[in-house]
Amino acid sequence: MNEEIVELFEEAIRRHVSDIYILPKVKGYEISFSTAAKFEFYKKISANQAIHLINFFKFKADMSLSERRRPQLGAWTYEQKGHKIFCRFSSVGTFLDQESLVIRFIYPNDFRNENYFQQQQFSQILTACKRRGLILFSGPMGSGKTTAMYTFARKLQAQLVMTIEDPVEIYEPNFLQLQVNNKAQMTYERLLTAALRLHPDVFVIGEIRNEQTAAIAIKAALSGHLVLSTVHAQNVYGVFLRLINLGVSKYDLEQTVQLVSYQRLIETTAGSAKVLFDLLTLNQTSWDEIRQNKRGVMTDEWKKNLTKCVQKGEITVAAKEKYLFG
Q1: pTM of the model
Q2: What InterPro entries does the annotation carry (predicted)?
């Protein structure tokens, strides 16, 4: 591995970036870093340098070097100078045949005590995970949903934890990890159906994305498994509405859902970032309230917790205003 790549990755790790962007510009390319707090320019490089850099990463991630226009995904583990970082790659070409690459960093053991604002929220989720049923995580990309799911699954110390993802984001040797491969007809639905026969103690499903996945996740939860999964929604209320839109009945949601969590990674006054959760159970709300809040309103508890963070000096007033509505 050449010094340029080691220097790039070590600087990214030092700044604890979530993504590295290698993007074409009018003249040459720019490398930028994305953190929870901001998107910042790193340096300019020539087009030739960028091509060599992108091809190196594509080779490591077993992506096609000859394909420069169509979107591709890949993964690679960076191991250097005592660091071991799991990397996800996403490439795509512009109409001018200029390829871009985004590298997502997944840090090991990343969800420690200092990575979230409130101990009681973490404890509440962990308590819910100790009961059978469905625990649902939501939040925008980069908010740490997968890291959170893996953390809680590890805390349970279950005999058999199975994960089904597209792609696998975090390598965990103690889990049985399955990866979706549509070309090989290994779809979410087929993998979930096969996995049920192994009777795992805990399922981690990367995403409930369609009616089939939702139905199998509900089936697994009803049959006595603990299921952790993500659902795309703008708040905790929206998670319930999303599942209803995917054909899940209110009765099945009442029977299976233990807890819904919406999370954001919020920049602190110390320059780092921490997770704040917005938590909801069906015992705390009604279907009428869920319907009324479908336009993106957060819970009252979310607003109170943001205010507490400001009062403790953990976040700025500007940060509170930025995340007030999720």
Answers
A1: 0.81
A2: ATPase_ComGA, P-loop_NTPase, T2SS/T4SS_dom
Q: Higher confidence at residue 260 or residue 2?
A: 260
The closest alpha carbon to 84, from 173, 216, 211, belongs to 173
Length of the chain: 326
User: Quick one: how far is CA 64 from the chain centroid?
Assistant: 25
State which amino acid sits at residue 313. G
DSSP letter string over 192-234?
A: HHHHHTT--SEEEES---SHHHHHHHHHHHHTT-EEEEE---S
Residues near 289 by beta carbon (within 8 Å), at least 6 away in sequence: 237
Token readout for 220 is 């697994």
Domains of the chain in start order, with CATH, are 3-106 (3.30.450.90), 113-323 (3.40.50.300)
Query: Residue 157, class by beta-carbon neighbours within 10 Å (0-12 exposed, 13-18 middle, 19+ buried)?
Result: exposed
Both tokens of residue 157?
Answer: 């110390």
Dihedral sign, CA of 53, 54, 57, 59?
negative
116 touches 127 (CB < 8 A)? no
pLDDT tens readout for residues 114-129: 588 998 999 999 999 9
pLDDT band at 294 (very low <50, low <70, confident <90, very high): low
